[in-house]
């Protein structure tokens, strides 16, 4: 490929920073993927021996977390790619659609990834990461970014070994090898894919297209919230539509609205500005990525908790169920607190109080009706949202002031 053609593949600084319709289309498959992850979480919490003990449930969640981290890493790498390359170019569109197709198979494999479809999950993940990286190694001849992809290809090749070997092993071996594979992938990205004798990459997509990446993370939060609505609505239809289950759906919707409100006011609206104002946009961007992973994880656990409430709204909440119904919002608030620090170099008190309130309520809620536990979680989130509104009333909009 000629040098001019390679240059045309890149997103210029003057290019529009808004995500394209192709990227929104790409996200559709992740609604399905997140739905499958929530389904796995619900299974984790409804197994008899698991539901009675919170620690055992958390161990089961750890296996599902491996699947979420794999899905998240592919989505994040794709967002980085479309921030660096022009999504209107046919070659980039091909890579995005091929990744979307692979992600569909990845989502299909989630339900049995820890058993019979483990090989499909692992091989699809490896094919996506190695395949598209190899595509750019071949395509970007003569450009500096080719070196970045060559370095990352070494790391993805290294992680492919535990991914594929783990798919054939027993549960403990598989989980250990997949955790090692994910550690290689995440550590490689964090360190800039260092390879002995070749050095490391110091190119950060956040420094070039921070506004675009900020909007992509906003959109993934919306995808996760949309999954919550989809799951709770579908759960209601799987049983009798009685008053208690209808109220459970209403509480689930209220909780989703509050999560949305807490995210977007105000740090969620100005992430792009915060990155632009940062001394080190790359470091701030990586922090924002971690914040969003925590928030999305919290949303998914909250979604699983909502489905548990819809399963048996008036029964006796098992310890693991309480952990999901209250722990999801607490994890979300923890991620949101870190996100606030990214945007404003501070954390507001209501978020910390909300986390402490959810933790303090947990032991008091065991064996109470799940509907009452869900109401308590919604009340805490409502308190945080109201505190935000009171604090902002009559004041000018706060501007981004990221940590130095």
TrEMBL record:
The keyword Protein transport appears for this protein: no
The entry's keywords: Membrane, Transmembrane, Transmembrane helix
Spans through the membrane: 21-39, 64-82, 94-114, 120-138, 150-169, 246-264, 320-339, 351-368, 374-394
Tagged with keyword Transmembrane helix: yes
InterPro entries registered for this protein in UniProt: Low_temperature_requirement_A
PANTHER family: BLL5714 PROTEIN
Record protein name field: Low temperature requirement protein A
Lineage: Bacteria, Bacillati, Actinomycetota, Actinomycetes, Micromonosporales
């Amino acid at each position: 490929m000629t040098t001019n053609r390679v240059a045309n593949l890149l997103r210029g600084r003057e290019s529009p920073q808004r995500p394209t319709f192709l990227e929104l289309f790409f996200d559709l498959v992740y609604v399905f993927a997140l739905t499958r992850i929530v389904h796995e979480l619900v299974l984790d919490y409804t197994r008899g021996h698991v539901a009675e003990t919170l620690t055992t449930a958390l161990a089961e969640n750890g296996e599902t977390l491996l699947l979420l981290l794999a899905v998240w890493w592919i989505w994040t790498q794709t967002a980085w790619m479309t921030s660096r390359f022009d999504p209107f170019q046919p070659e980039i569109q091909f890579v995005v659609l091929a990744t979307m197709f692979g992600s569909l198979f990845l989502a299909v494999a989630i339900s049995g990834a820890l058993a019979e479809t483990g090989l499909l999950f692992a091989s699809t993940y490896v094919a996506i990461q190695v395949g598209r990286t190899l595509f750019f190694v071949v395509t970007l001849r003569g450009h500096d970014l080719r070196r970045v992809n060559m370095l990352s290809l070494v790391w993805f090749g290294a992680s492919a070994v535990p991914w594929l070997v783990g798919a054939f092993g027993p549960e403990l071996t598989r989980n250990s090898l997949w955790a090692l594979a994910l550690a290689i992938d995440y550590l490689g990205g964090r360190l800039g894919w260092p390879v002995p004798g070749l050095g490391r990459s110091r190119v950060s997509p956040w420094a070039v297209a921070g506004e675009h990446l900020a909007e992509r993370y906003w959109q993934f939060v919306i995808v996760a919230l949309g999954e919550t609505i989809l799951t709770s609505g579908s759960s209601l239809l799987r049983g009798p539509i009685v008053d208690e289950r209808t109220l459970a759906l209403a509480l689930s919707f209220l909780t989703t609205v509050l999560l949305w409100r807490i995210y977007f006011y105000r740090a969620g609206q100005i992430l792009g500005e915060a990155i632009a104002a940062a001394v080190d946009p790359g470091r701030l961007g990586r922090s924002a990525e971690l914040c969003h992973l925590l928030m999305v994880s919290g949303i998914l656990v909250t979604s699983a908790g909502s489905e548990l409430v819809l399963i048996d709204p008036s029964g006796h909440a098992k310890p693991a169920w309480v952990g999901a119904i209250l722990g999801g919002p607490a994890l979300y608030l923890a991620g949101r607190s870190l996100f606030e620090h990214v945007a404003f170099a501070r954390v507001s008190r209501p978020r910390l109080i909300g986390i402490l309130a959810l933790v303090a309520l947990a032991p008091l809620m065991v064996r109470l009706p799940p509907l009452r536990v869900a109401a308590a979680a919604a009340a805490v989130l409502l308190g945080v949202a109201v505190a935000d509104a009171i604090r902002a009333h009559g004041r000018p909009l706060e501007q981004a002031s990221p940590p130095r």
